[in-house]
Amino acid sequence: MKDTLQRVVTIQQDVQKKIDGWIQRLSRSAIEQEERRYELMYGKPLSEKEIIEIKKGVVVRYAMILIVPVLVIVLTVLNQGVM
Residues 6 or more apart from 50 whose CB is under 8 A from it? Predict the structure, then answer.
């Protein structure tokens, strides 16, 4: 049982690392743009809290881009099945 739990923890950590990498890659350009704008306006770098907010916005944007078409397709298929 302990061996199984250890494997589950290892898999979870690997998945978390991959997701973090994807988020970092997707949000890199948005963070760079905001850093330049913020430094020009205020003369100081972005805080960690602001960087996290930018990442949240990027994740939500991509999630909507993926979820809405899938939802439309699923509802269309379900509607065809009803008729």
Answer: 34, 38
User: What is d(CA 82, CA 80) in angstroms, rounded to the nearest whole number?
Assistant: 5
Tens digit of pLDDT for each residue in 30-71?
999 999 998 999 888 889 999 999 999 999 999 999 999 999
Q: Is the whole-model pTM more than 0.85?
A: no
- For residues 26 and 18, is the Cβ–Cβ distance under 8 A? no
Q: Confirm if 60 and 40 have CB atoms less than 8 A apart.
A: no
Spatial separation of the C-alpha atoms in residues 50 and 37, rounded to whole Å? 13
